[in-house]
Amino acid sequence: MKIKVLPEDFVVREKLKLEIKPEGRYKIYLLTKRHWNTVDALRFISKENRIPLEKIGCAGRKDRHALTFQYISVPREYTINFNKENVKAQFIGYSDDFVSPLILEGNFFEITIRKLKNKDEKILQRLNEVQQFGFPNYFDDQRFGSTQSEDEFIGEKIVKKHYNGALKLYFTTIHPEDKKEEKQRKKKVSELWGDFEKILPLCKTKVERDIIKTLLKGKSRHYLIEALNLIPKEEMSIFLSAYQSYIWNRTLIAVLPFYADLLKPVKGKIMDYLIYTALSTKSLNNLKNLQIPTISSKIPYVSDIVNNAILEILNERGVKPSDFDTKKIRSWYFKSFLRPAIVFPEKLEVSNFEEDDFYEGYYKLRIKFYLPAGSFATMLIKSLTV
């Protein structure tokens, strides 16, 4: 089974609660892209049109390995105009509200599953089971692009007040898409960490240079916090939400055995996800209504099962809820919200099997469905593999 072989194999369209008008405080654009992730596309638009990045509103980050349609906004005094391959912004009107995650209702997906060995009825059976029983609402691997293992969360270093360790990870974490030269640069920085005079010439961006110049002033906690606060808000948000998502996933993994039998592991980037195939009527009803809080300094009570699981995981990680009060990090803070434990695809449509035009001798299958905001279509696909 293969997905995202071509960008057109994974199509995402946003659904927003947004009224488009002939006039309004904000200009609304439809951003269409392939081979670009959302953050890079917004940075390009910001630079190309001289619009401060924080003035560009968006509802969610979309993957580079897809064809995506999402909405962005800018205050009406700005205009987006550029010419770039694989990314375009079409003006569609005005609104009195800006685009943000608060108005994202969900996403429509059209996914082509390729390299199926035969017209396998098992995948159709699993689609029926997912429609009937839902699937675990994990944050998927895309959320963990900023870390390479369960022990390398910048967010956890910050929570533990290991600020030097957080900064080292910021400079040295190697990502799969890094080219050979970049990997070598990061390895060199790691070897030199602490000798900031030698690291300064290796910096690639203004942010990196400013951080190292701050660290050259001294190694006290004051300068470490000052350096951390130089990390752009968007990046810091990614680091801290990745750790928050990890704790949430671990909580769901701990809770599911109370409701489901025959849980099967599916390998992920930094952790295995436990997936069920069926549920009893009682368990289905319980899980339908179960919401798990994301971690913060103040965790709302849900049940003994859920809250005890959270505390056990935090204890294992060597942290406690009060550690998540990160007031010294100006650009972001941990806020708890309730997230459904399981999710159900809506408006599910399944095509007939067709010969795969990319992998000779194999078949492909197209599926269409809708998921509420925050749920990952790739988790649905992972759930089909058990």
From TrEMBL:
SUPFAM superfamilies: Pseudouridine synthase. It is an enzyme of class 5 (isomerase). It comes from the Bacteria. This is tRNA pseudouridine(13) synthase TruD. Belongs to the pseudouridine synthase TruD family. GO terms for molecular function: tRNA pseudouridine(13) synthase activity. It holds the Pfam family TruD. Its EC number is 5.4.99.27. Residues 134-344 form the TRUD domain. Keywords: Isomerase, tRNA processing.
